[in-house]
Design a protein that fits this description.
5-stranded mixed beta sheet, 41% helix, 5 strands, 10 helices
Length: 266
Amino acid sequence: MKLYQRDYCKGPTKFEMEEYERIREEEKIGMGLCRRNLYPQYPEAIRHYNSLFPNNHIELFDWKASGKMSELTKAFEQLVHDNTSRERDILNFINHTPAPYIIGSLLIYKDFGHHDTFIFPEFSIGAGTYFADYLIVGKNSGGYEFLFVELEAPHKSTTIKSGYEGYATRSGLNQISDWKYQIETDFVSITKEFEKACIDVDRLPQEFRQYDSTRMHYVVIAGLRDDYNDVTYRTRREKIKYLGIEMYHYDNLIDFSKALEEKNTF
């Protein structure tokens, strides 16, 4: 369920603390009683450690500063369009390359995530009854909201000839139906998962302790743009309107990831 090999809950090193203090002093220079905001320059370990979930905290400017986003997104696009690629190949690329911003790009047209973002791979639902491929948690002025993501294979019966859902898409939709029921009836188990990952459970906001359907969002990603026709797009709109489930293909995810390169936050 961690994003990183390092355990950021153990705190920053002495060197990182010294660097942090140096930057904090810089923030005071030339500002009188005010303080400049040099937060992006703080060591990553400091920023992670000060967050709710240090091992799941992600900030877009770190990826932009790496200069690798364009290269990684192109590699992901090649993987997705390889006819032999499976769901596990997609997960391995995102988790182990690593390139978690690709999943984070699902927030690009949401109104949450620009204040704070966390990504939880293989998030347990119902004490291990089910696992979401990813849970994205994002904050806006109204607090935290939750986006549960199910990935299906890019080349496995996404639609049938008419454009209606094929096996892979139906499987993803059924999976989310099970998740929704479990989350609605046993949110206590969801809270326990958050408590395991939280560095200080006393800081955990109410959104993580009390079920609120208006904060829950669900996404299925399956197939490619060529799998979609007018019928598919119509059923996609219907799923959003009547079930609250969004359907995307992997070309959408690639487009979202490319668009992130022009953004400052998720």
